[in-house]
Amino acid sequence: MKFAFYPGCSYEGTAGYPESVSAVSRALGLELEEVPDWNCCGATAYFSLDKYQALALTARVFALARARGHETVLTVCNACYTTLRKGYETLTSDPGLLARINEALKSEGLAMDDTVQVRHMLEVLTEVLPPSIWSEKAVRPMPAWLGSSKVAGYYGCQLTRPWGDLDRPERPDMLERFITALGLIPARHSAGTMCCGASHSAVYSRACRPLVERIVRGVRRAEAGLIATICPLCQFNLDAGQIDLPAPHLPVLFFTQLAGLALGLAPEELGLNKLMISLNFTG
């Protein structure tokens, strides 16, 4: 199974996301071909500054993937997912606007059409791969320290925005179903789609601290031992944001790191040594 992989601008600087995405993809037989010469998707802010230029950025990503014969652009970033979907829906519903954008892309020999879609990797692991793959490949029994811990899924506030097409956007359950498929116990809590502060945390850390506190408090109340998230910025904010909070601190893993552990991959192969709040592998 082959996808055009769009890493996004924050991917390489994350705590084990590249390592775990690569390791899990190899273990599951997924081939991720990085979009050549990819550009920033424009993130969410650019649309408020210059909608036309922002749409040109997203269209170019789809055009590059189409030129390589791909039908799906795969991303692992919530902001990239939302931005690319927003651009896709906007352009494919307005033929005149798409024609203008394609005129601008013509100088590179590129053109966007409606044949390439975007998916988050969580969707692929949960909705595209056969459910039996986890029962076949996941390690049984789980290591005691992992199998006995409830896992709190944290979606963040971008994946379930209106531009996505996920079911039950207000109360998603895709992460919980994924955690269950791995043979682990999901923790039900009320903070799964609350904002963690996003990029504001870099400038307004004090103002964003209550947001992180609220999320962690909800997870602790659910008696979870760790958090699994699907977004680079969410992982950083929840991981680093707990340092100044009262203990106990909860490790914050990417869902791909959790999948790798369930598949029996070594922690160092998954970049788990890069977490600020480390896992206790002997507990």
Summarize the structure.
The protein has helices at residues 17-28, 46-49, 51-67, 78-92, 95-105, 121-128, 132-137, 144-147, 174-181, 205-221, 232-241, 255-262, and strands at 2-6, 31-34, 72-75, 117-120, 150-154, 185-187, 224-229, 252-254. The chain has 283 residues and is α/β, with parallel strands linked by helices.
The number of distinct β-strands equals: 8
Compute the separation of the termini in Å: 37 Å
Q: Using the CA coordinates, give the radius of gyration.
A: 19 Å
Could you say how many structural domains there are in total?
2
CATH topology grouping of the largest domain: Rossmann fold
Strand proportion, as a percent range, falls in 5-15%
Query: Low-confidence spans: pLDDT under 50, at least 5 residues?
Result: none
Q: How many DSSP H or I helices?
A: 12
User: What is the mean predicted local confidence, pLDDT?
Assistant: 89
Choose one word for the global shape.
globular
Can you describe what's shown?
It is a single chain. This protein is α/β, with parallel strands linked by helices and 283 residues long. The model has no long low-confidence stretch (mean pLDDT 89). The two termini are 37 Å apart. Helix 1 links the parallel strand 1 and strand 2. The chain has twelve helices and eight strands. The protein folds into two domains: 120 residues, Glutathione S-transferase Yfyf (Class Pi), Chain A, domain 2, CATH 1.20.1050.140; 138 residues, Rossmann fold. Helix content is 42%, strand content 12%. The strands form two sheets. Strands 2-1-3-4 form a four-stranded parallel β-sheet, with helices on both faces. A four-stranded parallel β-sheet has the order 6-5-7-8, sandwiched between helices.
